[in-house]
Specification:
Layout lengths: L1 H10 L17 E7 L5 E7 L5 E6 L9 E2 L14 E2 L1 H9 L3 E5 L22 H12 L8 E7 L1 H10 L11 E7 L4 H7 L4 H15 L19 E6 L7 H10 L4 E6 L7 H8 L2 H11 L1
Parallel strand pairs: 3-6, 3-7, 7-8, 8-9, 9-10
Antiparallel strand pairs: 1-2, 2-6, 4-5
Helix pairs in contact: 1-6, 3-4
Length: 292
């Protein structure tokens, strides 16, 4: 029972409703769909700002969607007591002249079930990041736009994977900047939760059978050196659910112009996700420096 519960908490989809809408924030948008390379249809919002610069936002995994995070129906473990709406950052980005593409990863929100019906923590979802960039790259009204990537947690991992694969993001000349918010490895998350080793091994074995690969040894760290645009890494230094040494290693592996923003927030992982929507200054400054 406990093994199934913990395994589901790590990779089971279906916990991520799209709980709000851009119209609630006074934003002009259209519902869009596009396909990943393996045929999975992804659902999103194209929020209309400027036509010469676009931010593509990739959300975190399992308990999230393009809309953000809601604690409703999350069971025993909740990341945050109130909704965290990612439309907050869409609002300030649009006010700064950007259009914003927000989309659901496969197995999340309103997107289709993936060819692997489980959340993979980045290897499968990297196809979705590339599909989102393709959607903007070939959009008739936005094809000449400069692109910035705002990638959160699993979104950061998926984006990093997407830089290290053949025909990946490293080949796109329109991408000008990346903000990686709290990149996290599956194995560090399991370890930080304090799950005893014998139990963690059983959970990993169960999820390895489901996902057909070992999440405990899979890492996007080797792909960091393939990132070829200026990168800002954001991390709450009081985050209890990650390995801060890994975040430092991620930053150190970057070979591009880079910045590190350490946040002194409450001792909760989701505090940084809440911060991103409420404190736009650093994000706008970084994107403005490299995109405008």
């Amino acid at each position: 029972m406990i093994v199934n519960y913990l395994a589901d908490m790590m990779i089971k989809p279906g916990k991520s409703p799209v709980f709000n809408n851009p119209k609630d924030f006074g934003l002009d948008y259209e519902d869009v769909t596009f396909k990943a390379s393996d045929g999975v249809t992804l659902s999103g919002w194209l929020i209309k700002g400027g036509t010469d610069k676009v931010i593509i936002q990739s959300h975190f995994g399992v308990q999230c969607s393009r809309a953000g995070y809601t604690p409703k129906d999350k069971g025993l473990i909740t990341l945050w007591k109130t909704d965290i709406s990612f439309l907050n950052q869409a609002k300030y980005l649009v006010n700064a002249g950007y259009s914003v593409l927000m989309y659901d990863f496969r197995n999340h929100g309103n997107s289709e079930t993936g060819t692997c019906p489980w959340v993979s923590w980045g290897p499968q979802e990297s196809k979705d990041v590339i599909a989102a960039v393709d959607f903007i790259t070939y959009h008739p009204d936005l094809k000449d736009s400069k692109v910035g990537l705002l990638s959160i947690c699993m979104g950061a991992g998926s984006t990093t994977y997407a830089y290290g694969i053949e025909n990946g993001l490293q080949d796109y000349k329109n991408i000008k900047a990346l903000i990686a918010v709290q990149p996290l490895l599956y194995q560090d998350f399991v370890r930080a939760m304090g799950i005893p080793g014998f139990l963690a091994n059983r959970v990993n074995s169960f999820n390895k059978h489901r996902a057909s690969f070992d999440l405990n040894t899979t890492s996007f760290l080797p792909n960091v050196k393939s990132i070829n645009v200026p990168t800002l890494v954001i991390q709450n230094e009081n985050d209890p659910w990650t390995n801060l040494d890994f975040v430092k290693q991620y930053y150190n592996e970057l070979t591009v112009e880079k910045e590190m923003l350490w946040l002194d927030l409450t001792k909760q992982r989701a505090a940084a996700y809440d911060y991103v929507g409420k404190y736009p200054e650093k994000i706008l400054d970084f994107f403005s420096k490299h995109i405008d």
